[in-house]
Design goal:
385 residues, alpha/beta, Rossmann fold, Dihydrodipicolinate Reductase, domain 2, 2 domains, nine-stranded mixed sheet, 9 helices, 18 strands, 32% helix, globular, binds nicotinamide-adenine-dinucleotide
């Protein structure tokens, strides 16, 4: 009987003490991958990630070591970048730190996988992309929404053709993020300070870019207005601070195939819809609404006749008129699913489209959103290559 072959992949995990680093990338992705025995790529062949947890604070690292059951930690990135035992650099630091450290890693010959937004400006993002190309290293950028059960089901519906010709897409994203003077805020305070890399458009337009490009058609133009609805918040130490970043972005996009898409994104809204993110798709064959996990549809042939009459109680229960799209395959955590694909790409060279170039497109859209806001008008989206 042939022996089991294991490809060990050393991964430097920088920013792993943060919210995304700990919850999504470590505890819901790499730890479960290790616990399941690695990523199976052949009858007796596996990829086994071997992460080292990197951070500034030894106390936090020790806590994380105990939580994850992983052994290796370090407070010093530099020697790891020179260590051939770790061919992969992962970055989930705050956005403003990503470009410099990813560039260092690329120059040290590391393959790179990182959170979005990959940089603060499109120019920085393209420098990263070009540096990776020159160094011949592999890259990946988190595009997690593509692996959410709701959006995978929506993609299958669209591909089946049952929505017919799609003409419009409407995304509603957000919830109320507490200011921090009473209930503790749900998100780190840097998100609300522009000087620290915060901002709704910078945060969310990268998500809308890959969602639109991958599900509906390439984004060709946008018009966006941003706002800072909540002027003052309280930070992690309970100190008040002025919000200098936008906490809401109201954007309209034109896609290559005439589809019009609108996305409202707000940290200052209260939810009355199916989920924290819902996307309504209207086509001549039917409509669909996707949330994070569930999808509902209404075929054209079952569209009820709505009649406008405010003098009587609304006779139709609109929510009851939709069919829930059933699950057809087991779903994984979206971050874990993308990690597994990236690990396969590293070892087996399987195709992986979600590279630094795709990440740069997200930063480009965010940058153009701020430009559109400033000039109060439509902006074309040039092709990045
Ligand atoms: N994919 C998604 O859906 C998603 C969701 C939320 C956030 N993000 C992105 O993930 C990244 C991290 O966000 P978060 O919410 O986890 O933030 P966070 O503040 O919880 O974590 C930030 C990390 O950066 C590290 N860091 C900050 N300043 C540092 C410094 N001076 N030196 C060294 N390390 C430093 C922190 O120690 C921490 O590990 C951001 O770029 C954010 O845009 C992505």
């Amino acid at each position: 009987m042939s022996e089991t072959k294991t490809h060990r992949i050393g991964i430097i995990m920088n920013g792993v003490t943060g919210r995304m680093g700990t919850n999504q990338h470590l505890m819901r992705s790499l730890v479960p991958i290790i616990q399941q025995g690695g990523v199976k790529i052949g009858e007796r062949e596996f990829i086994m990630p071997d992460p080292i947890l990197v951070g500034r604070n030894p106390v936090k690292l020790e806590k994380l070591r105990r939580l994850s059951g992983l052994e290796k930690t370090s407070v010093n990135l530099e020697p790891l970048l020179a260590d051939p035992d770790y061919p992969v650099y992962f970055d989930a630091q705050t956005t403003d730190r990503r470009c410099a450290d990813v560039m260092r890693a690329i120059k040290a010959g590391k393959h790179v996988y990182c959170e979005k937004p990959i940089a603060l400006t499109c120019e920085q993002a393209m420098q990263m992309q070009r540096a990776a190309e020159t160094a011949g290293v592999k890259t990946g950028v988190v595009q997690d929404k593509l692996w959410l059960p709701g959006f995978r089901k929506l993609k299958r519906l669209i591909d089946s053709g049952c929505l017919g010709r799609i003409h419009s897409v409407r995304g509603e994203f957000g919830y109320w993020v507490f200011e921090g003077d009473g209930a503790p805020p749900q998100r780190p305070s840097w998100n609300y300070r522009a000087e620290d890399g915060g901002g709704m458009a910078l945060d969310m337009l990268p998500h809308w870019r890959y969602l639109l490009d991958n599900l509906f058609g390439e984004v060709k133009a946008l018009c966006c207005s941003t706002r800072t609805h909540v002027a003052q918040r309280w930070d992690e130490s309970g100190n008040p601070y002025q919000c200098t970043a936008d906490d809401a972005a109201y954007a309209t996009f034109e896609l290559e195939n005439q589809i019009i898409a609108q996305f409202n994104s707000s940290w200052a809204t209260r939810v009355r819809r199916d989920d924290l993110l819902t996307v309504l798709v209207d086509g001549d064959g039917g409509s669909a609404v996707a949330g994070l996990r569930k999808v509902w549809m209404q075929p054209a042939g079952a569209t009820p006749r709505a009649v406008w009459n405010p003098d009587i109680e609304q006779p139709l229960d609109f929510y009851q008129q939709w069919l829930e799209v059933p699950d057809t395959e087991p779903e994984e955590n979206a971050f874990k699913a993308q990690w597994e694909l990236f690990l396969r790409h590293l070892v087996d060279d399987t195709p992986f489209r979600w590279t630094l170039l795709e990440g740069a497109k997200g930063v480009q859209l965010a940058e153009l959103a701020y430009q559109s806001h400033k000039q109060r008008g439509w902006v074309e989206v040039p092709v990045l290559q």
